[in-house]
Amino acid sequence: MNNSAIGKFNVEKITVQQEQQLTNIQHYIECALKSGEHHIVVIEGQAGTGKSVLLTKLFQRLKAGATLKGSPYYQKQCVFTVNHPELLKIYQELGRQLPGIYKKDYVRPTSLINDCHKTKKMYDIVLVDEGHLLFTKPEPYIRFTQENQLSEIIKLSRVVVVVFDFKQVMQTKMFWNKPLLDKVLAPYKHVFFNLDFQYRMQASQATIEWIDGLTNGQILPLPSNRGDYDLRIYSRAYDLYEAIKQRNIEVGLSRMLTATGFTRGPHDEHTVRMDDFNQPWDELDAQPTPWAERSESITEVGSIYTIQGFDLNYAGVILSPAFEYDATTDSIVVNPDKVTHTEIYKKTPRIQSEQEMTAFKSQVMFNTLNVLLKRGIKGLYVTAADPQLRKRLLEL
């Protein structure tokens, strides 16, 4: 594998299954372009199922066809949007590498919407990665004043192709579930394509099922057949970190990750502390190199804000103090009182009752865990800040 996050978009090596999906999607798009109506293609799939690769290959074909007389995409206006600043950097870098695609072809949703409203522009095709990160409420501070970004994008394009994974919904301002998506799609022609094969983790099916269980709070026996996937549970975060640093020396792209739940230090330091491990959180900044590719990020701890959508070779994951062990059910539960990043729980008209909000808080944390645990291609190293949970995991 290319020791760069760009390597995740190796569109020259798509599988037979992916090629068949692409053929079906392209056929739908070509028919939709002739109809004169708005159409939406929804690509569903969990973390690691190749959604971004599929979307990138599709974009490459659409842009190539736009310059070829006789192509169904000839002179069609096409743009790619993603509401994730770190992932946008990857795509914009990709635009410098793939023929016929440019940095300007990748934009944030708010920029796309506001520019179209200003210029009265209408796109033929808009591709949306990480659709579950689109806003479902106004966010005036970033100049999004409408109610729903997907609804606005649909109005501004003849065909929208959008990727969705409800297990990667992370905040109330990006609140998505199946009923809401169905409501947004209802006025328009639409079709669903489902991706269900795990491409990222080079692991046995039993190992994938064990990780899937953990993302739902289940504690299952460690599988005896793990294939070549390096799955380990550690008693100390410091020892886990030492192993991740060694993997980073050997193969690169190995990083520490965790979720919200760690309190600030005595001098208000924004750090992750457990036993002898004490490292700062990731730093979002404007430099073009994404967090995972920066050499200095080996001394930091990544979060969903810097790692969502990325591949790592090895992921070292600390289950934060918000994840606790429930001995009665022999499962992992979320303690919302220990969630320190309250931005994810802001009020939204999409959630009316306290009961719904409590359920949402728990689900968001498990969604976060789902993203973190499924970053590693070659291996996953795990420990837990909660002593009882750590003890239970070590018993496995």
Descriptive account of the structure:
The protein contains 11 helices and 15 strands. It is an alpha/beta fold. It has 2 domains: 5-195, Rossmann fold; 205-395, no CATH class. A 6-stranded parallel β-sheet has the order 3-2-4-5-1-6. It has a 5-stranded parallel β-sheet with strand order 7-15-12-8-11, sandwiched between helices. A hairpin with a 4-residue loop joins strand 13 (323-326) and strand 14. This is Schlafen group 3-like DNA/RNA helicase domain-containing protein. Residues 39-386 form the Schlafen group 3-like DNA/RNA helicase domain. It comes from Convivina praedatoris.
List the helices and strands and how they pair.
Blueprint (H helix, E strand, L loop, with lengths): L15 H20 L3 E7 L5 H15 L12 E5 L2 H10 L11 E2 L1 H11 L3 E7 L19 H7 L1 E8 L13 H8 L3 E7 L9 H10 L15 E4 L3 H15 L2 E5 L12 E4 L2 E4 L20 E2 L1 H4 L4 E8 L3 E4 L4 E4 L19 H20 L2 E9 L2 H9 L1
Parallel strand pairs: 1-5, 1-6, 2-3, 2-4, 4-5, 7-15, 8-11, 8-12, 12-15
Antiparallel strand pairs: 9-10, 13-14
The N- and C-terminal alpha carbons lie at a distance of 31 Å
The CATH architecture designation of the largest domain is 3-Layer(aba) Sandwich
| Beta strand count | 15
Unreliable stretches (pLDDT < 50, length at least 5) are 1-8
Order of helices and strands: HEHEHEHEHEHEHEHEEEEHEEEHEH
Number of domains: 2
The profile of the biggest β sheet is: 6 strands, parallel
- The proportion of strand residues reads 15-25%
CATH fold annotation of the largest domain = Rossmann fold
CATH superfamily of the largest domain, called what? P-loop containing nucleotide triphosphate hydrolases
Helix percent reads 25-40%
Report strand order across the widest sheet. 3-2-4-5-1-6
The level-1 CATH class of the largest domain: Alpha Beta
Query: Structural class of the secondary elements?
Result: alpha/beta
From the spread of the alpha carbons, the general shape counts as: globular
Quaternary structure annotation: single chain
> Measured on Cα atoms, how large is the radius of gyration?
21 Å
